[in-house]
């Protein structure tokens, strides 16, 4: 996984073409890049992200952010209630409790 300016690129190798190709994975917009070597691939990734950011700026649009920090989640009622009760027992908001638990999985 490549990282640059908060964006992540997923890479695959096409053996038949002898070419690495990738895509920025955390956007609604489609941004791709390719290269024949690791150095060329990394440069193409950086160039693609920079071009995307420049394009957005020229159009007066905000670039799509890799992550907003908001996560929509649907739970069965019983699970929602149980997690809420556990959070309250620990004196935490539901958001604090879930964030803490998910952070422990790293």
TrEMBL record:
InterPro entries: Ribbon_hlx_hlx (IPR010985), TTHA1013/TTHA0281-like (IPR035069), Uncharacterised_HicB (IPR008651). SUPFAM superfamilies: Ribbon-helix-helix, TTHA1013/TTHA0281-like. It comes from the Bacteria. It holds the Pfam family HicB. GO terms for biological process: regulation of DNA-templated transcription. This is Type II toxin-antitoxin system HicB family antitoxin. The lineage of its organism: Bacteria, Pseudomonadati, Balneolota, Balneolia, Balneolales.
């Amino acid at each position: 996984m490549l990282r640059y300016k908060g964006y992540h690129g997923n890479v695959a190798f096409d053996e038949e073409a002898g070419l690495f190709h990738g895509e920025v994975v955390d956007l609604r917009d489609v941004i791709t890049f390719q290269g024949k070597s690791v150095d060329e691939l990394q440069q193409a990734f950086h160039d693609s992200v920079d071009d995307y950011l420049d394009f957005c700026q020229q159009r007066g649009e905000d670039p799509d952010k890799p992550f907003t920090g908001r996560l929509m989640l649907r739970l069965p009622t019983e699970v929602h209630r149980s997690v809420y009760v556990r959070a309250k027992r620990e004196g935490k908001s539901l958001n604090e409790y879930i964030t803490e638990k998910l952070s422990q999985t790293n």
